[in-house]
Design goal:
Number of strands: 6
CATH superfamily: Glycerate kinase, domain 1
Distance between the termini: 15 Å
Strand content: 15-25%
Radius of gyration: 16 Å
Helix content: 25-40%
Order of helices and strands: EHEEHEHEHHHE
Structural class: alpha/beta
Shape: globular
Number of helices: 6
Largest sheet: 6 strands, mixed
Number of domains: 1
Amino acid sequence: MARPVRLFVSSSPDLGAEREIVGQVLAGLPISVGWEVQYTPLPGEVRRAAILSVAECDLFLTLLGQDFAAPMGAEWADALRHGRSVLAYRKVTLHSPSALMHLRDSKAAWQDFDTPEKLRVPLTRQLAQMLLDRGEYFGLHLPEVEGLLELLKVKEDAGPGVEDPSRTGAGRGGVILGRGNI
């Protein structure tokens, strides 16, 4: 059996709702291999043993809010040093001087969003495309490929699916089981 896709999410401390969206998007992707996810710890959060490091991840996702705060700089440098695929999203907001400097110097293909829900569709599409591009590496099967292709057909302006507000907890690091493992 193929191993889970490993994702490291580096995020500004003010993006708790966006982290939740990331977890929901991952759980909704039609793949059976599942995910191992590590997030930047939030301020005051007890740092648990890391599930994986930037060096071990398949994909590095950065979510930039108001500030480019520690340890985001070290995580970014590790991702570049290890040649990780990078997905970069920035919230349309007032940015701190450190965030502005990072935006200027990073040379990343930043995608803008202004609300947590406006992150959902572009992130889903970009992750689906990344999985398709590396489908053989991740051991994807035809039904998974077909499901990912369907996600790419969703219009950019399509509204979000109806989410149950009581379903939370997807914004923390952990393992998301694939559909074949449930």
